[in-house]
Amino acid sequence: MRKINILTKNVYNRIAAGEVVDRPYSAVKELIENSLDAGATEIEIYIERGGKDLIKITDNGGGIERDDMRAAFLPHATSKIAVAEDLDNILTLGFRGEALASISSISKVEIKSVTAGNSAYKITCEGGKIGEILPTALERGTEITVRDLFYNTPVRAKFMKTDKKEETDITAFVTRYILGNPQVSFKYFTDGKLALQSFGGGLDEAVAQVYGAKVLNECFKIDAERNGVRLRGFIGNQNFFKPTKTYQSVFLNGRYIVNNTIATAVSQAYASYAMKRQFPFYILFIDVPHDSVDVNVHPSKADVRFVDNKFVFGNVYTVISSILDGNAVAADFVVNNIKSPEIKSTFYKTRGYAVSNVNNMVKNSEQQPEEDLQKLIDKYKPEMKVDTSEAREIAVAAKTEESEPREFDILKDLPLDELMPKATNNILRVTDDSVPLAFGPTYAMDNFPAKQQAIDYSACKYKGNLFNTYLLYEYGETVYMIDQHAAHERLIFDGLMKKLEERNIVCQPLLVPYIFETNAQEERILEEKLPVLRSMGFGIEPFGVGSYRIDEVPVDLQEIDVKEFMGEILADTEGLKDKGLDEILKDRIATAACKHAVKGGMQLTDGEIDALFKLIDGNMGLKCPHGRPVCVALSKRDIEKMFKRIV
Q: Which residues contact 643 (CB under 8 A, 6 or more apart)?
């Protein structure tokens, strides 16, 4: 019996127009959704050259009847809906009847299919020209092969990305379908190699296959219903965040979507726990009544429109915030009544110490008097309501903070040839409150003049300072006001940059290699940057599927927090595409110089002031790494005009 209906004009005019297939991932998406709608429990995906040469999808679904095979290629031909009213209660992923027609018009397509109790048949369509229906061999379901995508539209082909980037985008979508359909077994092959596989064993297994089993220990598994809205899946705990939003997935009534209402609700629920440029991890399945949402608002069906945005926002926010805040009602939302753990101290956030830096701080404690450290432990343990081990970490962090030098003694009584190395020692230990690499300001360091507005510093007379910040020097009939912080910051930066440019790379093996996992987008960026990282002295190699290992770092950066450093490199995959890691390192050095330079308001000794001024070497046109001027000049004439001595 025929199942596919040719839609009438009044139906398909209600369907939003738009390009269905603009890149290979679009074709893969549409074909996987067709397999899922056909009831498939086993799906295999094959691509070659990022889907440009080949896309093949096989499934064990219900198959296509012989009499429907030609109609499958016709525009607006679908088995999902029949009349206009069906658009108000869409239960399938596909419904427009545009996918196969669009794909076959720009490629060479072959369909093989068999239905229960019948023989298998195949049909081809090349550039929109439909061939004959012929007998073939196929055990079950449907096999669709797409070759030479955009072969007859060369202009469109020019806008495709590189093979690897197209593959990455396809991989990102395949992972979403694995997560969104955990009861379905998937196999995904790229250029003949098995890249991803799931076994249909449920959501826990699917998450472990995509992100690794360790992720499950960092999440709450939830199943909550509130006011007719059901939320289930996994959400990261209060301390589990990712550097990008690519670890966020939302499935509304089984359909993967990107929706601002839901994303904002989740983000606000995590707002009091996340630091800047951190993003929560979540895989959320949200079920709402079908008549309360319109899925027919976007050509690619990527977004939806709710009848009441505030209603959806409120329910999502309330459920997630209740779990994170440890409210009593959270026991009803977490699977197996797992009690939400006690909220940990926000000490690290408020004082700018990331949890990832605590290990380094603990090492410092070995150099501190144990009795002093114990006093701090006793102080913070009751105040923060934490156990002894965490109280020790907090105390060490506090002691490290409190013990920072208050005087500018790094310049005191040092010969000039030793001054810069001493001043820049260990300045690359950048903590959480520094400007991140990917999102930091654009430093003007490449535009700095070598030397301008030069004066003979030996002829200058020191006249004092203002607010322990601005040093005053008289030179002829000009007064120079030098910002001590900006000046020292620039000098530290110049010294480190010279050291970076002249050094021979010497590597320091890590006692314990750092191993980290990436998703498809991060892996693509990292593969492009591997040669640069290695040239900088990082010993980094692939370590299994989607994982990397770092076992060496440059000696100059041996105290760097490797986890933080790699997280910042991957924090903005799009923004880092065209940015060299040498520029990233410059940003980090500039940030470090700022952190370790003498601060405004810090009182310097006469010896320190003289040493700093000698290092400037009469170059009054210097700017700090952020582009601020080091010096401002006022002539005698300018001052006399202020007092109206002259007009």
A: none
Averaged pLDDT score across all residues of the chain = 75
Kindly report the backbone phi and psi dihedral angles of residue 278, in degrees, each rounded to the nearest multiple of 5, phi listed first: -115, 145
Q: What is the pLDDT of residues 189-220, one digit of tens each?
A: 999 999 889 999 999 999 988 888 888 989 99
Alpha-carbon distance of 162 to 164, in angstroms, equals 5
Q: Which two tokens stand for residue 470?
A: 């601005």
Tell me, what DSSP letter sits at residue 430?
-
pLDDT score, position 411? 37
- Burial class of 227 by CB neighbour count within 10 A (0 to 12, 13 to 18, 19+): exposed
The Cα–Cα gap between 66 and 61 comes to 15
CA distances to 164, 322, 344, 590, 636 from 319, in Å: 39, 5, 20, 43, 68
Can you spell out the DSSP letters for 259-320? -HHHHHHHHHHTTTTPPTT-EE-EEEEEE--GGGEE--SSTTS---EES-HHHHHHHHHHHH
Q: At what angle do helices 370-384 and 388-402 cross, to 10 degrees?
A: 120
φ, ψ of residue 292 to 5 degrees: the values are: -100, 5
- Residue 159 above 90 pLDDT? no
475's CB contacts (< 8 A; 6+ apart) are: 455, 456, 459, 460, 461
- Coil, strand, or helix at residue 205? helix
CA distances from 276 to 69, 258, 534 (A): 53, 22, 29
Residue 582, number of CB atoms within 10 A of its CB: 12
Place of tokens 């070497």: 617
pLDDT score for 426: 31
- Report the alpha-carbon distance of residue 395 to residue 390 in Å, rounded: 9
Query: What confidence score (pLDDT) does residue 124 get?
Result: 92
DSSP letter for each residue of 169-193: HHHHHHHHHHHH-TTSEEEEEETTE
| pTM over the 0.85 mark | no
Residues 5-21 have pLDDT tens digits of: 675 544 443 343 335 67
- Is the sign of the CA dihedral 636, 638, 639, 641 positive or negative? positive
Helices (H), 385-427: 388-402, 416-423
Kindly state the percentage of the chain with pLDDT values over 90: 27
Instruction: Return the axis-axis angle of helices 562-569 and 581-596, rounded to nearest 10°.
Output: 130
Q: Cα 512 vs. chain centroid, distance in angstroms?
A: 25
Tokens of residue 603, six digits? 């009182």
Instruction: Compute how many other C-beta atoms are within 10 angstroms of the C-beta atom of residue 463.
Output: 11
Residue 518 reports pLDDT greater than 70: yes
Residues 638-643: contacts with CB within 8 Å, 24+ apart?
639/479
Q: Is residue 163 predicted with pLDDT exceeding 70?
A: yes
Please determine, for residue 487, whether its predicted confidence score (pLDDT) is greater than 50.
Answer: yes
Q: Which stretches of 94-235 are DSSP H helices?
A: 99-105, 154-158, 163-180, 203-211
Task: Please state the length of the chain.
Answer: 647
pLDDT in tens, 295-341: 766 555 567 888 888 999 999 999 999 999 988 888 889 987 444 33
Question: Which residues contact residue 408 at a Cβ distance below 8 angstroms, ignoring those fewer than 6 apart?
Answer: 598, 602, 604, 605, 608
Q: What is the pLDDT of residue 211?
A: 87
